[in-house]
User: Fold these one by one.
Assistant:
Number 1:
Amino acid sequence: MSYQTEQIGERIRRRRKELKLTQKNIAEYLQITPSSVTQWEQGISAPSGKNLINLGKALDCDPAWILSGEEENIEVRESNAEWHAGFELWDGDTPLRDDEVALPFYREVELAAGSGSTFVQENGGCKLRFAKSTLKKSRVEPQHAACVTVSGNSMLPVLRHGTTVGVDTSKKSIIDGEMYAIDHDGMLRVKMLYRTPGGGIRIKSYNNDEFPDEFIAPEKAAEIKIIGWVFWWSVLNVWNN
């Protein structure tokens, strides 16, 4: 085991314990196996790529610090000025502060029997601590707030892969050009929506060059289930050069 890998594992373990999180909590947030977290902490392997970025978010620290122990410049872009209150993974055992609320995550789940079909449900094992002040500023009731993680690059440059967005599940009416989390026939997506004549829906991505608009005919509009309106997001951008 190299000295560098050993130090990485020590930092991961120490920071996890500081936040009073279990290896299972981290694994559920990253959607990996707990044994992977164990291997990181024991120095058998080290996180990289998407797992490294998401681990930094779960541990509320710079990914560069995980690797080297040194802070590096990280640009953070968010939709409001409440970043200092922000969010962090909640293990269910640590008491929430008076100014916090635990928000559920939505995720895609593959059906049994290897059919490849999926459906969308709440991730019962993973919640985020979120500031009540942010919800109040956005006029979102805590019982209607949830979180979704963006996958892919279709919403660049606004939402990067791995971005966490806050969703108001009480707002399901389409306002043209607003961003929504949707269940598209079992696929969890974050997109801008527009109404079209006759009851159809236009689905738009920010990265329109690579992901052209999708037009959903009125007779297939029922395949689009709106989970809620996106009211908040946070983006972590890491310098890769």
Number 2:
Amino acid sequence: MNNVKTSFSIRDMENLSGIKAHTIRIWEKRYNLFSPERTDTNIRTYNLESLQKLLNVTLLYNNGYKISKIAKLGNEKIPVLVNEIISEKSEKSHALNSLKLSMLNFDQALFLRTYNELMEGKSFTQIFNEVFIPLLNELGLLWQTNTISPAHEHFISNLIKQKIYIHTEQLQFEAPTNKDEVYVLFLPENEIHELGLLYINYQLALKGYKTIYLGQTMPIESLEDLLKYYSNIRFVSYFTVSPTKDEIENYFERFREVLKKSAGSKLYVLGHQIQEIGEEQLLGSIKIFKNINQLIDSL
């Protein structure tokens, strides 16, 4: 069974390219850039080749090329020109487009080629911040608008996770150099979104800290055992969907009871669910961070 998405609505094209549907229709009618098919109810649909062409046209357009000139190039010359003008400025856009296509086609080979090309000139930290984070931010919108399915999101997220695992493992062969604190990374119960936490684990290892990665859906009670082995723990957690905003205050109260058993230990929290909490509301042993870079920069 072929699960590759091969038919796209004009709204899908808009969501994936960032070009308004109205503009796409103008380009289509005035310059014959695309040849959509029609459903039985006369609704435009576009194939994968049209999407790829639109992404290339968008990159050229955003680099100062007039649409009239692009239209005269023809289907074969457009990708050639794209490759010629790819620079540091446009590399990010080109990489994002390639990663979107790899996701839509479930094409692991394209993902790996794109990633390896990026690695030739960037560090993993740069790739994550400049390419993966913008891509992941876009995935939320694409999923909400039904442009992609959860299968697409899981596919690309797991490929990114694989890269985090590989780079983290390379660092873990070396003994920690910052031994004053131990970082214990976990997700609360019913929380499974761990990509951000995995990346934090990588950054902590990169800075020479000892980390203990516990992963998904950890009960608070299970974390108490760590206090028997280490006296200066920095617990790090990421609240994406759980606990809910109504449950957070109670969760923090329960965690404070755990932290009372170790005067030097603290809880650091990030994620969507804590964005509305002000730092002044959490004094003492619990500290919130608005994003990953804020946490990393504070170390």
